[in-house]
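Dig into my protein:

:::
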Amino acid sequence: MKDDLSAQLTPDMMLQAYAAGIFPMAEGRDDPRLFWVDPRHRGVVPLNGFHISRSLARRLRRDDYRVTLNHGFDDVVRACAARPETWINDPLRRLYSALHDMGHAHSIEVHGPDGLIGGVFGLTIGGAFFGESMFSAARDGSKIALAYLTDHLRACGFSLFDTQFITPHLASLGAVEIPRADYRRRLSRAINRTARFGAAALPATGYGLLQRNTQTSYRG
């Protein structure tokens, strides 16, 4: 559906749309128009099926990074939108920021010695997390963010991690594609579940994350 939503779309309307299984996008950074998207197939990350390769496990054990929750939401959104091609325009950035102020949009930040090296952000309704975008400014930055995010969602009682679409990068980490009808059944259950982002503490170290992640699959 290509009708322009930018003039009338509000944060509350966004939440209603996500709860119904649709979400807004722009054609590009410089296009102010927004339109609804309702994919026939949806990407999801099974919360007990996140794949950590041996190389990522080695990276997680290093102590040269720090992970935080909601310490730089706008910075993460800005970094996600800074790539050459993006569907995040200024109207969406303002809506995400408003939803963050309302407690419905969250970020995980990965800090290196010189600043952010990775991050991911998304929206929450009940026990559903709708992943919007991620970025990596150093090797494995986004993978570290996703490993911590998946662990955190599980620890906080979430049951659905929606990635909207699936990419080879997400598939390598355990994401799968499911039909629209299956997705909406899972969504209906998830949004009626009680969960709260930030309710559990992050593991103090990557080693701690690996220890408590009993479902981790090691692959070369």
